């Protein structure tokens, strides 16, 4: 019986030990020098002595693990100051500055400092794409040592992209999230294969699962998917039908699109300008505009429901208008330019006088966003701006359109607004970052003027300039940081809650600008 | 002595404090800024006006704000400002409130030094007869307590350790209380810590038996203490719980003057006491020293700052004993600066040999500070971190994020300061390309 076992059972139970049998360790031999001790004391002394012997004589067990050495770094390394600024952005209170800072690191050819790599590799999924290029050789090497960081590993060879070897097993047995991920991987690799996998399990799955897995088809959506999606339109679940309809709306030529054309075409007609209108337009010096005549659908065709059109309207909305918006949202925009023979600008302009401009605009906007119809976006945006209405299908139509339209168009529109001294925080937030130089200049001019007259201004609850500062601090391009840091602080602001809010917001703004300037200065060396 | 941003970062208790301070580190937030050879000062406009002063020789600060834990954000802000814009603090004569503070500090330092030089000065004349009587009484009570502890240990093993799983932690608490009553607080703490062992590791029975055995050895050694060398007797008395006063250490302890590097630091919390263990390594002597500090109750900062990763000239006074581990900072002789290079590292084999020698002198030691040189952090097949040196020798490393060490080193050999407890090395500090990296996670901010 060994020592621990004897201690566990208790020396009373073990009886006398034959102390001298077998070989005695040096520690045990020490205890033998005092033969009159009771057995429990002997045991304790042996244990204590051998504990000390073990501590004093610790030796490595087995051979050393094989060395893992990182290849030399190809990117430039950050200074200590850059490291502490970036730490603040990754872990501290300046998280909003991270995306721009990373873009600047990339353009300067820097890698994240080594001490921040474990944090960066453990970042939320949404940040992976942003951080991957600044991980450097060291980061990719490190990722290879931890299976959880496979997304960033050096020998990635599309580890993320290409499906794992046991993809089919995971798809059949995994959790819903695993199945969705693996199906998305297969889809990227071989769209048809993914569709076959989906079709194989389609009959046995719950509605929630069908709806989730169906999303995989969004990637690389093509004409081959049509038949499957048409089948899904007859699904038992309304959620699945709606998802399938949404997908079908992304296919420009399909039976679905034909059906929608047929339903929508009679609803909108163009009345050509008569001679009087033409004459008036010629005198005023602009092109003559026709009027768009809008007919509301009177009855809900049950066939529409199969294509994902909802019958019940949200509160406060006429049913006819609601059906109209949805039908237009599902209809090809190219159909209108072909059928009515006008450009998108003309068509949108012809809508101006209509009482039903709202629902049509809502439908067209949803269609333009879904079909990525860039030519439609600027005129639609202009009309939303004119009407000042809210969208139903697209809750923030102006911001959504601005974010989706061509940069030059978006820039021109924002500059015009800012030039008039109008700031709409929501739009500034939607603008891709960093802001284009022109927007930044006009914004800073406007802000300067606003600050200048702040003392005379009446307190206002949602001062848009005040609201825009936070976004500006993180979105101004690096070329404009110097200019931003020279803005006069709002010292003359009134000594009330309004002035207080301004001073606070301005402090946050200057801190962001200051931190970015320090980082930029460090990067220049 | 110019202040650097790195120094300020080292001083800050957490990055939150630092970023709060950064907001105030602009000359527009300050009035009456100034500096002298000894100190810098200024008045910070916050929710009211706070008077902030920092002694530049040791970076100890004082502020009129309600935050008691120093350095507060105002003091950090002042130092950040001094680091970023030295010109903002013009040399001038210290105002009254700064000068008075510096005088109070100087007076306190002088009083400490005098007390150290002549321990009896300034105290009531000692009634040596009464003192001897109290000492004899305590020795007797300790002896009784130790006898009782011996019986308790014997009973545990006679009945069998199998019952401990159910009776822990009660039996340890109770026995610890008895030892407190017997005026043996050192042993009381040891016994109380035994309660952490059951079920903590798969081999906890063996660990517990080893600890009980080491206690038994200590009891036997104490019983025949008269036969032991004097310095080992001193160790035994400290392990049992006799306090050695600072004055005595300063007066009698072996002195060593060197440039000291703070190579490892651990902070543990126990009830209301925070204990900070800092290991120092001397440049010239290669000697090591353990500085213990305690913070009790609500005032949770350690009296005099001592930061991992800095170095300074100082004279140490070692506590009496054969172990020659624990020491006091007798006198600081320079402002601490951030380490940019580690000096005096040892190989893994050297550490092992040193541990053996130390245990031969004082067998109850269980922690050893060390600076391992040229060890490559490496993951073994089971995912555990090991430090491997160029000869292929290797030891286990624990209590650290393995991927942080791998990220910093890239798998290449580096120098690592830390603490060895017989089972694993706890990395605390490394310096790479002139930059010190602290490897211990900072304790979470409280309150």
Please tell me about this protein's structure.
- The complex is a heterodimer of chains A (525) and B (447).
- With 525 residues, chain A is mainly alpha-helical.
- Helix content of chain A is 58%, strand content 2%.
- Among the domains of chain A are: 3-56, no CATH class; 80-152, no CATH class; 167-248; 255-405, no CATH class.
- Chain A has helices at 3-9, 11-14, 26-32, 39-56, 80-91, 98-108, 117-121, 125-131, 136-143, 167-173, 176-189, 191-202, 207-214, 226-232, 238-248, 255-264, 275-284, 302-306, 319-329, 333-340, 344-349, 357-371, 377-387, 397-404, 407-419, 425-430, 437-452, 464-475, 481-485, 497-524; strands at 268-271, 291-294.
- A two-stranded antiparallel ribbon of chain A has the order 1-2.
- In chain A, α10 runs antiparallel to α11 (176-189), α14 (226-232) packs antiparallel against α15 and α22 (357-371) packs antiparallel against α23.
- Chain A is extended.
- The N and C termini of chain A lie far apart (70 Å).
- Chain B is an alpha+beta fold.
- Chain B folds into four domains: 5-113, no CATH class; 136-240; 246-338, OB fold (Dihydrolipoamide Acetyltransferase, E2P) (Beta Barrel); 348-438.
- In chain B, strands 5, 6, 7, 8, 9 and 10 form a six-stranded antiparallel beta sheet that branches. A six-stranded antiparallel beta sheet of chain B has the order 13-12-11-14-15-16. In chain B, strands 1-2-3-4 form a four-stranded antiparallel beta sheet, with helices on both faces.
- Chain B starts with a helix and ends in a 9-residue tail after the last strand.
- The relative contact order of chain B is 0.09.
- At the A-B interface, α1, α2, α4, α5 and α7 of A face α1, α2, α5, α9 and α12 of B.
């Amino acid at each position: 019986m060994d020592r621990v076992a004897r201690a566990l059972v208790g020396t009373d139970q073990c009886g006398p030990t034959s102390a001298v049998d077998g070989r005695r360790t040096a520690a045990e031999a020490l205890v033998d020098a005092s033969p009159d001790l009771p057995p429990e004391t002997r045991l304790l002394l042996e244990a204590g002595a051998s504990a000390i012997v073990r501590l004093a004589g610790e030796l490595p067990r087995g051979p050393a693990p094989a060395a893992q050495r990182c290849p030399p770094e190809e990117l430039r390394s950050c200074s200590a100051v850059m490291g502490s600024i970036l730490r603040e952005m990754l872990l501290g209170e300046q998280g909003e500055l991270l995306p721009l800072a990373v873009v600047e690191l990339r353009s300067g050819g820097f890698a994240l400092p080594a001490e921040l790599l474990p944090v960066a590799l453990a970042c939320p999924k949404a940040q992976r794409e942003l951080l991957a290029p600044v991980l450097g050789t060291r980061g990719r090497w490190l990722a290879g040592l931890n299976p959880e960081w496979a997304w960033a590993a050096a020998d990635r060879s599309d580890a993320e992209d290409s499906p794992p070897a046991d993809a089919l097993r995971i798809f059949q047995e995994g959790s819903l999230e695993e199945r969705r991920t693996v199906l998305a991987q297969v889809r990227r690799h071989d769209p048809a294969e993914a569709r076959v996998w989906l079709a194989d399990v389609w009959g046995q799955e719950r509605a929630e699962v069908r709806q989730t897995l169906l999303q995989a088809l969004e990637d690389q959506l093509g004409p081959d998917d049509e038949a499957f999606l048409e089948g899904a339109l007859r699904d038992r679940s309304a959620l699945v039908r709606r998802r399938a309809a949404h997908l079908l709306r992304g296919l420009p030529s399909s039976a679905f699109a034909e059906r929608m054309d047929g339903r929508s075409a009679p609803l909108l007609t163009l009345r050509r300008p008569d001679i009087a209108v033409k004459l008036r337009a010629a005198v005023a010096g602009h092109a003559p505009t026709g009027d768009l005549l809008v007919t509301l659908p009177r009855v809900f065709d049950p066939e529409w429901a199969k294509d994902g059109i909802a019958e019940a309207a949200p509160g406060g909305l006429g049913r006819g208008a609601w059906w109209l918006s949805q039908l237009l949202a599902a209809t090809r925009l190219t159909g209108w330019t072909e059928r009515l023979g006008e450009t998108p600008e003309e068509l949108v302009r012809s809508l101006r006088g209509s009482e039903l401009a709202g629902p049509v605009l809502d439908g067209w906007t949803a269609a333009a966003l879904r079909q990525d119809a860039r030519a439609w976006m600027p005129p639609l945006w202009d009309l939303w701006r004119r009407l000042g209405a809210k969208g139903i299908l697209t809750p923030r139509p102006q911001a959504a359109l601005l974010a989706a339209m061509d940069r030059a168009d978006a820039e021109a529109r924002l500059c015009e607004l800012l030039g008039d001294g109008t700031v709409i925080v929501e739009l500034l937030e939607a603008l891709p970052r960093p802001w284009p130089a022109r927007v930044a200049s006009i914004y800073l001019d406007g802000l300067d003027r606003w600050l200048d007259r702040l003392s005379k201004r009446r307190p206002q609850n949602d001062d848009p300039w005040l609201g825009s500062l936070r976004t500006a601090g993180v979105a101004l391009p690096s070329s404009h940081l110097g200019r931003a840091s020279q803005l006069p602080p709002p010292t003359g602001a009134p000594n009330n809650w309004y002035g207080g809010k301004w001073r606070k917001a301005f402090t946050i703004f200057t801190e962001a600008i200051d931190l970015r300037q320090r980082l930029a200065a460090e990067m220049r060396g | 002595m110019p202040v650097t941003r790195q120094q300020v970062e080292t001083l800050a208790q957490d990055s939150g404090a630092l970023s709060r301070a950064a907001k105030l580190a602009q000359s527009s937030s300050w009035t009456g800024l100034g500096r002298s050879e000894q100190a810098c000062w200024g008045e910070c406009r916050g929710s009211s006006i706070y008077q902030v002063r920092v002694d530049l020789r040791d970076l100890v600060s004082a502020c009129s704000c309600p935050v008691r834990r120093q350095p507060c954000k105002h003091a950090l802000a002042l130092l950040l400002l001094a680091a970023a814009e030295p010109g903002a603090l013009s040399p001038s004569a210290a105002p009254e409130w700064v000068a008075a503070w510096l005088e109070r500090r100087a007076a306190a330092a002088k009083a400490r030094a005098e007390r150290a030089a002549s321990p009896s000065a300034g105290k009531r004349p000692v009634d040596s007869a009464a003192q001897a009587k109290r000492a004899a009484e305590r020795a007797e009570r300790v002896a009784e307590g130790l006898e009782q502890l011996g019986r308790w240990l014997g009973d545990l093993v006679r009945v069998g350790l199998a019952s401990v799983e159910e009776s822990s932690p009660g039996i340890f608490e109770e026995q610890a209380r008895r030892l407190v009553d017997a005026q043996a607080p050192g042993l009381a703490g040891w016994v109380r810590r035994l309660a952490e062992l059951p079920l903590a590791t798969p081999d906890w029975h063996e660990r517990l038996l080893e600890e009980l055995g080491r206690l038994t050895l200590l009891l036997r050694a104490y019983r025949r203490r008269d036969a032991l060398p004097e310095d080992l007797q001193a160790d035994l008395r400290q392990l049992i719980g006799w306090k050695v006063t600072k004055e005595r250490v300063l007066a009698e302890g072996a002195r060593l003057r060197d440039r000291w590097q703070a190579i490892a630091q651990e902070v543990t919390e126990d009830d209301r006491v925070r204990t900070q263990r800092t290991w120092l390594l001397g440049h010239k002597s290669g000697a090591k020293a353990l500085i213990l500090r305690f913070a009790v109750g609500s005032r949770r900062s350690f009296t005099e700052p001592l930061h991992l990763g800095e170095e300074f000239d100082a004279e140490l006074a070692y506590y009496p004993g054969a172990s020659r581990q624990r020491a006091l900072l007798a006198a600081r002789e320079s402002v601490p600066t951030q380490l940019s290079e580690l000096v005096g590292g040892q190989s893994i084999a050297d550490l092992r040999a040193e541990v053996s020698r130390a245990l031969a002198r004082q067998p109850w030691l269980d922690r050893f500070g060390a600076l391992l040189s040229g060890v490559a952090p490496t993951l073994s097949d089971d995912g555990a971190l090991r430090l491997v040196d160029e000869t292929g020798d290797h030891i286990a490393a624990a209590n650290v994020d393995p991927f942080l060490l791998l990220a910093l080193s890239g798998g290449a050999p580096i120098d690592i300061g830390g603490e060895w407890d017989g089972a694993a090395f706890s990395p605390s500090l490394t310096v790479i390309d002139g930059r010190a990296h602290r490897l211990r996670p900072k304790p979470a901010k409280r309150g």
